[in-house]
Amino acid sequence: MLKRFSVRAALAALILLPVAAAGFTASAEPAGAGLRWRPCAPQSAGQCTTIPVPVDWADPGGAKFDLTIGRLPATEPWHRIGVLFVAPGGPGGSGIDSYILNPGFPIGDALRKRFDIVSWDQRGVSRSNEVRCSADLLARAQRPFPSGDKEYRELLAFNAELGADCRKHTGPVFDHIDTTSAVRDLDAIRNALGERKLSFYGASYGTQVGQQYAELFGDRVRAMTIDSNMDHSLRSGSRYIETTSEDLEGSFGEFADWCARTAGCALHGRDVRAVWDDLLAKAEAGKLTDPATGKPLDTEALRSELMGAMYRPATRWFGLGDRLAALAGTAAATPAQPAAADELGQNSYQGIWCEDWKWRVSGAAELRTYRDRAARLAPHTKLSPFWTDVTSCLGWPAKVNNPQHRLSIDDGPPILIAKARYDVATPYRWNLAVADQIDDSVLLEYDGIGHGQYYQSGCIRNHIERYLLTLRTPAPNTHCPAEYPTTRPATTQSLPAPTPKPTH
After folding, report:
1. Which residues contact 363 (CB under 8 A, 6 or more apart)?
2. What are the tens digits of pLDDT across the range 154-194?
3. Digit-coded pLDDT (tens) for 133-163
4. Angle CA(322)–CA(325)–CA(330) in degrees, nearest 5?
5. pTM value > 0.90
6. Which of the residues 148, 363, 445, 485 has an alpha carbon 20 to 30 A from that of 315?
7. Total domain count for the chain?
8. CA dist., res. 397 & res. 115, Å (int)
9. Domain coverage including residue 78
10. Which of 503, 495, 26, 500 is CA-nearest to residue 266?
11. Helices 237-261 & 428-437, crossing angle to 10 degrees?
């Protein structure tokens, strides 16, 4: 899934430091020895179990459901520090699939040796009472930006219909899948594992889980790294769309400049910005045909492909160059893969998201001002596909249990915050805002682009791993240089259409 960087010799030396320096006594016993663990899948080293948690934490003695947990025991148990909880992204990402069953395991060997790696499927996700909805309704959810009052009313009616359908197919958990509930689940996991304190790494949406855990249970945190941060204090839908659009534009500019200096890029020697502008204009006019499918490609799908490539430059930029060249008619197309049909589909992202974010929008005219402001800030890319994070919750029937607020963290250790120069999913302005809200925080900056800086930069990775192992934070104002590909990797990711909208 993610490129793994080698651990530097200096970091390897740190691994041999006494565990007492990090405030713990080594224990060879894996966490949760009293739980009934089983293989998560055949031939898997990952072990899974479940614990019962309340459907509604306001009624802890009421109905319960099973939450699924996975772990990989420390590979050097005689040097074991404790548990490293790794939060999945999304919302809606499966921690079991991403971290416990992933054959390209993204957590470095330095951490694997010293920690039991523990992740979970958050409530409403995958093995933990997944949000399920009628597939035919979900297929109708991809809509263009509402341009008038009629489209706006249809949007609200559709969201209400879809939400009611999801509630019917999901059950009572549907109304209690907000992040505060997930954080209380995480503390229940910590308790079930018998851990006095936890170490934590979260990227993207996982940073919101970490932030809110530190708010509620800061005295139970040993170390915390939050990488590519959500800013849950954002109340303005306009500002939300503007900031995501700014970083899409900035990321595209970095790609265009990279292509200009990289001979292996399929658009090398051409004006990449002009190529993109022409493709976007054709898509807006309904005149862009996808050579992979022979069907029209609209602006939403085109921008989603662009944004998806900006998550991982190392593995996706060569594929993006190929894709744009094919759309421009100067290279062969990659065939699209058909999607499997099903009667029900998962809708964890929208279900969780809309219990965390409350947007006050008066109507279509106000939404158009959001779009127009974004276009002024992003003259080439115009609008981030994450505009739907605002519109998908308008008319949604579930209560917003965990509305936006500024962080208030009183206890716990220094929190390490990692950010990029541009990040299409968690813009740099969000990361700065989070750092401003956490008094005892240390900012670690990557001068390149991408999402999840631990996975972009060996320098960032080393700083994060050293902190989690030893509690030593980087010096203030530490920057790591950009790392962009110069030759095609063996696993270049092509981008056949249609590409679903990425998640946080």
Report:
1. 149, 152
2. 999 999 999 999 999 999 999 999 999 999 999 999 999 99
3. 999 999 998 678 998 999 999 999 999 999 9
4. 120
5. yes
6. 445
7. 1
8. 41
9. 9-130+175-235+406-480
10. 495
11. 130
